[in-house]
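If your schedule permits, I should be very grateful for your opinion on a structural question. I have a record of one protein: its chain in single-letter code and its fold written as discrete structure tokens. Would you kindly read the sequence against the tokens and tell me how you understand this chain to fold? Thank you for your consideration; the sequence and its tokens are set out here.


***
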Amino acid sequence: MKKYAVIVAGGNGSRMGSAVPKQFLLLRDKPVLWYTLETFLEAYADLEVILVVPEEHVEASRVVVDATRAPQRVRLTMGGTTRFYSVQRGLALIEGEAVVFVQDGVRCLTTKELIWRCYEQAVSLGSAIPAVASKDSVRLVKGEGSEVLDRSRVKLVQTPQTFLNSILVPSYHVEFREEFTDEATVVEAAGHAVHLVEGDVNNIKITTPIDLVIAEKLLA
């Protein structure tokens, strides 16, 4: 069965306070995006990457791709106006029966072990959504007040969200809706069950300056 990773790298530097989009910020002398690409290329020798980027970042992304171990296995395509449409465009390039990973380009500490875990479960159950337990107390806002939730029943969702393409691709043949916050919500809306898999607490998403500091320490 074929393997594809649709890696969405459409962020900017707004929450970073940086003029440089966060996927191109340097982490131990390499762009954040480089680490994400390298891990997927290393995880499986037969995996193909579809890298979805905004038009204005195509050339910068190409430079990052050329520095990876297998640039010939990475295909660049331009994204849409939202993450949903960017994923949709990436999925349009998938051919044949496959397992598809959908990954945040700035989730650069994803491990091969997590990728393998997601793959095995997706083959078995059709989907694998990595998630970790919340370490904090959780409250649900209701009107002007709030109520506590049972923390043991709350999971924090990560990527790569992984599916058989026979489930994922048809699910994306719809228009965007506000409740589509990730791939799992799109698949659920199409009538499919989604299955969680154990995530990794170090699998953080680079969003703010402190995330970059943490990633630096974890890589060290």
